[in-house]
Amino acid sequence: MVLDRYDRQILEILQVDGRVNNQDLADRIGLSPSPCLRRVRALEESGLILGYRALLDAKKLGLSLMALVHISMDRHTPERFANFEASVDVLPEVLECLLITGQDADYQVKVFVRDMDHYQDLLLNKLTRIEGVTGVHSSFVLRRVVDRTALALA
């Protein structure tokens, strides 16, 4: 899909304010409401816009500890990876799971937990019990330096 300047402006605005109403969006990009709404719908239907979400404050929900967990697998087979991925997908503490290269690990998993006891339970009773997991290295996040969800559209 080829994006023109209006499409790019729509995407930039929606990434920052997904709740903007169509009239305000149209005013901000210099279109009338009807063509603006048609463009938004076309962007949604094309799959460029995957959805709209509320961003929550983890600390206010009692989730004060974020960890990045590097996980190594014993075998690099599609079945082993599929089993691991299905297992972590059902863990509510897991926000992100990435299959990675360039490290001693196969996966990087981002988790949010209440405290160290909660992390210990997740680690010892869930993550390390997944078949094929041979190594786990945890790093605890002290502070988020850059924390954005908007993609660069330049």
From TrEMBL:
<dbReference type="Pfam" id="PF01037">
    <property type="entry name" value="AsnC_trans_reg"/>
</dbReference>
<dbReference type="InterPro" id="IPR019888">
    <property type="entry name" value="Tscrpt_reg_AsnC-like"/>
</dbReference>
<dbReference type="InterPro" id="IPR011991">
    <property type="entry name" value="ArsR-like_HTH"/>
</dbReference>
<dbReference type="InterPro" id="IPR019887">
    <property type="entry name" value="Tscrpt_reg_AsnC/Lrp_C"/>
</dbReference>
<dbReference type="InterPro" id="IPR011008">
    <property type="entry name" value="Dimeric_a/b-barrel"/>
</dbReference>
<keyword id="KW-0238">DNA-binding</keyword>
<keyword id="KW-0804">Transcription</keyword>
<dbReference type="InterPro" id="IPR036390">
    <property type="entry name" value="WH_DNA-bd_sf"/>
</dbReference>
<dbReference type="Pfam" id="PF13412">
    <property type="entry name" value="HTH_24"/>
</dbReference>
<dbReference type="InterPro" id="IPR000485">
    <property type="entry name" value="AsnC-type_HTH_dom"/>
</dbReference>
<feature type="domain" description="HTH asnC-type">
    <location>
        <begin position="3"/>
        <end position="64"/>
    </location>
</feature>
<keyword id="KW-0805">Transcription regulation</keyword>
<protein>
    <submittedName>
        <fullName>Lrp/AsnC family leucine-responsive transcriptional regulator</fullName>
    </submittedName>
</protein>
<dbReference type="InterPro" id="IPR036388">
    <property type="entry name" value="WH-like_DNA-bd_sf"/>
</dbReference>
